[in-house]
Amino acid sequence: MTKVHTDAFIDRADFVHFMASHRRQNSPHPLKFWKATGRPRYLLEVFSLLLAISILFLAYRYYFGSLADVFDEKLCAKPVTELCLLEQQVIDACRVSANCEALSQQKKDAAAAKQTDTPLVLVEVFYEVLCRDSKEFIIEQVFPAFQKVGGIVNMSLVPYGKATERQDGNEYVFTCQHGPNECKGNIIQSCAISLCEGKDRNLALSFVNCMMVSHDSAGAGPSCAKDVGVEWAPIETCSTSSAGNKLQHIMAQRTDSLKPKLNWVPWVVVNGVHTQDIQDQATNDLRKLICDTYKVRMISINRVQRRRREHNPPSPGR
Is the distance from CB of 266 to CB of 134 less than 8 angstroms? Predict the structure, then answer.
């Protein structure tokens, strides 16, 4: 019995040894090789290290990138006039290079205008916030022209157009050609124009241009105020109060007193005069019209001054 048991044990041991040897020989990567080189552990350590580096890198980008975005947002929210006084890197980062160039040109034009004693060209634009033609004129003619020759022009915006008004107690009720939203937008712009008056002429026009670019012109006030760098709260308070109602009434009076009467928007008046020729020139190239008008006035003033000097020559002793 002992011999049979021993033989059976030896047979099973031989069989197990044989099967193990067979698997090692047929395996593409013998287990002995892997254990000898330690490759599984090595690869696992390398993978863990790369994963840790990736996580740290992403965390760094997220944290410090968020801080940079917040910093840029706060810095770029300042008015353009303040940004233009900062370093060129900040100007480029806030994407206001074109605005700063325009402001610089306006200052040069204004300085030249003072030296020649030539009055600024007065351009009055009567328009409606939701009128397609008005939007195109503000975006394509008024705003670009002011950016180029703002130093020689006094641009006056009158958002009212073909609206009507009636007095109801101490306030006025307005009815606009394109509905209540247009009346709301008109009052918002009237308030913005009034509040920015005397501070920075470019701010009011930039705010109006931003609203006109938007698909929702009447509701773009808050976002445009942020983009341009003006406070929205005073504009909103004005537009929903009696102050805004009175400002819009003033716009109505200016529009109703036009001679000839307004029958189209946008309606352009240059130095108090409206003609079909002025309207056509302004529609095609407002900047050229402003420059030509300024040159004509400058030439006229120079002629008058020259005639005065001829009739009143300086005394020999001077």
Answer: yes
